[in-house]
Design a protein that fits this description.
Elements: E1 36-40, H1 42-48, H2 58-67, E2 72-75, H3 86-96, E3 103-108, H4 114-121, E4 125-128, H5 148-160, E5 164-169, H6 176-182, E6 186-190, H7 192-203, H8 211-230, E7 234-238, H9 246-252, E8 256-261, H10 263-272, H11 274-283
Parallel strand pairs: 1-2, 1-8, 2-3, 3-4, 4-5, 5-6, 6-7, 7-8
Length: 292
Amino acid sequence: MNPPSSSASSPPLTPERSTCPSQPILDAKGQEIRCALSVNVNKIALVRNARTLDVPSVERLSEVCLNAGAHGLTVHPRPDARHIIKRDVAALSQLLKSWPGREFNIEGNPLHNLMDLVNEFRPEQATLVPDAVGQSTSDHGWQFPRDLDVLQPLVKTLQSWGVRVSLFMDPNPEQMQFCQRLGVERVELYTEAYARGFLQAQSRSGAGEDPELLKAAVSPYIETANAAHACGLVINAGHDLSADNLRAFLTHVPHVREVSIGHALMADALELGYHQAVALYLAQIPLLETRP
């Protein structure tokens, strides 16, 4: 499968750049689905960096993901360059120019190396994450009102570059009003707590999920998604989402427009290959008419 031309019949479509939330999201079969899948390719680069011969190729496997129907690509270049490096960002930015309708999302701390990369490559979306230098993985969201003053000028700068801004946030409905005050377009809900709760719900039940434990796992996200939606924010989600827990999350949590998944998808790709792994994850996203 080659990159789609502008006349392709039914290419999967991604969310709006900033102002058209009604744009449909399609799977590889042309069916309208609840949210978009952005594949985080950090772990491909992590494996690549263990040697010096550019194997595996971040660009090549990213193209496999796009061929399989992924709606976009996500990277999180860190200051220590442990996985994604600048030349990866450049290569993926160029690759996506051949895939109209697919989006590039660059994540990171705007107080570290993010702003220069976004300024140079102008992705569709920048996700601002309050990581510390050397932190192993993202583990918390921004805290308001504490972080308002530092983020406000950075958000304005990003938006002046034509880049949509998403804030990495814990599932706390009271925080959404501050995101609205900042004028960002989106929030990404940090979903590790849900993933842990989902595992507990499975381990307590001999068949399927324990309904009470599952309710406890999704309730903070339902409340936060509703609060965000009421504030005019679009909801993304990510971190420890997997083929096992994705459908339950999207079935119960409303208004989710995009999920960003890397670690679990990479683990499944070791068994299935990237093309089949992306197809597996797309199959977990409910069709648009599916409701809880």
